[in-house]
């Protein structure tokens, strides 16, 4: 399975779980992926705006969260761990109709922690820069169990 198809499968599992990711990012399109990195797009819709008509900071933070998780998935992980730290710098705004270009990479994945970086742009304009750290020890165990069960079937 290609890295992009693997990430699409993981993303589908996120969406099928329902909840916040599905409500907020159902329009997220996974465009390309390679080992440890993924590129996505999201059209800014009315539900993504703050009261002033700009892209809501909560949306951008959610993109950093999900983007970091998908970058970990691009390391051939099915489970992607739990967040321990997330930070974001809001550089400029985005408005209704803009297409957000999201580039995420897994900077390092170890036995316990994974470190990711997410850039969000509109064209060449940087909208936000984020970092996301995740605890992945249990995810490694879950991935090993998934691989073991799929080979024994």
UniProtKB/TrEMBL annotation:
Keywords: Hydrolase. Belongs to the thioesterase PaaI family. InterPro entries: ACOT13, HotDog_dom_sf, PAAI_dom, Thioestr_dom. It comes from the Eukaryota. This is HotDog domain-containing protein. Residues 53-126 form the Thioesterase domain. It holds the Pfam family 4HBT. GO terms for molecular function: fatty acyl-CoA hydrolase activity.
């Amino acid at each position: 399975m290609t890295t992009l198809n693997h990430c699409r499968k993981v993303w589908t599992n996120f969406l099928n779980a329902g909840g916040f990711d599905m409500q907020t990012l159902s329009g997220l399109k996974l465009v390309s992926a390679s080992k440890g990195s993924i590129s996505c797009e999201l059209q800014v819709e009315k539900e993504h705006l703050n009261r002033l008509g700009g892209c809501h900071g909560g949306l951008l933070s959610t993109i950093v969260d999900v983007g970091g998780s998908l970058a970990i998935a691009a390391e051939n992980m099915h489970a992607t761990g739990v967040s321990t730290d997330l930070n974001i710098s809001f550089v400029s705004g985005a408005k209704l109709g803009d297409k957000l270009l999201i580039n995420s990479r897994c900077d390092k994945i170890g036995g316990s922690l994974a470190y990711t970086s997410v850039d969000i742009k509109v064209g060449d304009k940087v909208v936000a820069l984020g970092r996301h750290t995740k605890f992945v020890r249990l995810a490694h165990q879950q991935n090993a169990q998934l691989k073991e069960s799929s080979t024994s079937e």
